Amino acid sequence: MDIVDKHERSKLMGRIRGKDTKPELAVRRIAHRLGYRFRLHRKDLPGSPDLVFPRRCKVVFVHGCYWHRHQGCRLAYQPKSNVEFWNRKFAVNVARDRRVLVDLTDQGWKTLVIWECEVKDSDLVASRLSAHLG
């Protein structure tokens, strides 16, 4: 049983953004501080990656642990209501993520996924970005 009515739940879910999220902004700040310049959300690439480094032919996705089902993460919890709907939705998201990574690799792009829970450790993000882009 949900603790809010359908109208209120709809308003809450409508406020969830797909671009310019706090984790994405944090990763962008770190990449910029490291001296890397990038493009945002190129629609001509599969999955419209969050950060695109065209000269290096590399992309970075910043995934929310809940929506993209980060394995073993406490933020990827299972909803208690409407379970069948959410399982279907999560399965579609994960399948799409896999397909996008394969498509980008086939086109010659190197990919990196940074998870929302990893963003709390800016040193980890900086080292992963440097290793990916260096």
Task: Outline the structure in words.
- By secondary structure, this protein is of the alpha+beta class.
- It has one domain: Endonuclease, Chain A.
- It is built from 5 helices and 4 strands.
- The protein has helices spanning 6-14, 22-33, 65-68, 83-106, 122-133; strands spanning 39-40, 51-53, 58-63, 110-115.
- Strand 2 (51-53) and strand 3 form a beta hairpin.
- The termini are far apart.
- The mean pLDDT is 93.
- It is an enzyme of class 3 (hydrolase).
- May nick specific sequences that contain T:G mispairs resulting from m5C-deamination.
Largest sheet: 4 strands, mixed
Rg over alpha carbons: 16 Å
General form: globular
Helix content: 40-55%
The structural class is alpha+beta
CATH level 1 name: Alpha Beta
Number of domains: 1
Query: What percent strand?
Result: 5-15%
Low-confidence stretches: none
Report the oligomer: single chain
What would CATH call the homologous superfamily?
VSR Endonuclease
Tell me which CATH architecture applies here: 3-Layer(aba) Sandwich
Number of helices: 5
Looking at the structure, the CATH topology is: Endonuclease, Chain A
User: How many β-strands, per DSSP?
Assistant: 4
SSE sequence, one letter per element: HHEEEHHEH
Average pLDDT number? 93
Which strand order spans the largest sheet, edge to edge or round the barrel?
1-2-3-4
Termini Cα gap: 49 Å
